[in-house]
Amino acid sequence: FYRKVLHPSRVSSKTRQTVGLLAGLFLSWLKQCWSWFLLHFLMFCVYVLNSGVFSKSYAKNQYVSVVAMGILSAAHLYRQITVYGSYVLDYTGPLMIITQKIIYVAFSVHDGMGRDESNLNAEQKKEKLKKVPSPLEYFGYVFHYSNILIGPVGTYHEYTDFITGTVFNTKVGPVGTCHTVPWAAFNTKKATVEKLSSAILCVVVFVVASPRFPVASNADPYFIDNTPFIYRLIYAWLSIVATRMRYYFAFKAGEAINNICGLGFGGYDEEGNPSWNKMSNANITKLELAQNMKMLLDNWNISTAVWLRRIVYDRVTSHRTLATFLLSAFWHGFYGGYYLTFITCQILVEAARVARRTLREHFQGSKMTSRFYDVITCVVTMVFVTYATVPFVLLDPWKGLRFWG
């Protein structure tokens, strides 16, 4: 409906923004995502747009980011106190998405109105905003129905290109040719079916496997004391893979929903065929067969990883990896297991870089040794990832330490 009936050639941008906003607010209410914290976000957004915060010269992006993260943190703490250790789907998920969007806009306005263009990288130049969005534009982006519940999140620039339809009018084509393809010529059916099929497969695997390999058993004292180490390691890996299926389901379902409404167009391949990979959150095959931590992190929760890179990694001058992991943990909440996982991942990323620089060249002499290196690094990566991520799923830091012990 949104992609066809509310086509940019048929209705105005304001109509598309209004419908997307109202649908997003309705879905939030329908899924019981409304809370005092969401109302605080609404009031804060109204304040930001009407108080002149964006027009002031001092640290406007830091101010907006601190307040947004503060509201999200209060929600995380409230949930952690009231339903400790639960995996209930509630308002915190949409709040995490809203936080990303609010901070995206704050930094884009800061780059466009508060920094010299010579100090911006290519992405920052593309995403910068020379003026503050109108209330409809701002709220339409923050609460758009396609990704308010489970993401993935795109930038404000990507959203406006989608609303106006200009993203589809890029002149590209096979080598040696150029042409412009109107939006009406696009069909998202193939991409949508592929992603929905992946989502269904993942949820089936999760439903079948997770009861057989509950993650909680990894911290059970009896299981630890009476199970051989190798079996415990294999069990931990199977339980984490089963748990990841739940996230894969959400990721792929979110991608499909965005594609259905027309979001996620990623340009054209060398043959001029349209690609719908812009709003991707996980590349399952590359992730499960990752040969190092960087490859794994690059293919997991991709939109959040891009957000963290653009907001933190590309902007801080020292300890960039550590700062990125700490913000990621802070954004997720305050369970101790999160911090055990992210600090461990930071150490593993640095160790993997050193190991790759030191060892890889010694295995490139032949095809056989190169493949041997690939297999070994894949297995080692999965072992370390399992070791690092079990505390994240267990949530409780003492359970995580018990598993490690």
UniProtKB/TrEMBL annotation:
Bilayer disposition of the protein: Multi-pass membrane protein
Gene Ontology cellular-component terms listed: membrane
Major site of localization recorded for this protein: membrane
Matches recorded under InterPro entries: LPLAT_7/PORCN-like, MBOAT_fam
UniProt keyword annotations, A-Z: Acyltransferase, Membrane, Transferase, Transmembrane, Transmembrane helix
One annotated GO molecular function: acyltransferase activity
UniProt record, GO biological process: lipid modification
Pfam families documented for this protein: MBOAT (PF03062)
Subcellular location: Membrane
Key word Flavoprotein present: no
Membrane spanning stretches: 21-49, 196-217, 372-395
Protein name in UniProt: Uncharacterized protein
Organism: Nematostella vectensis
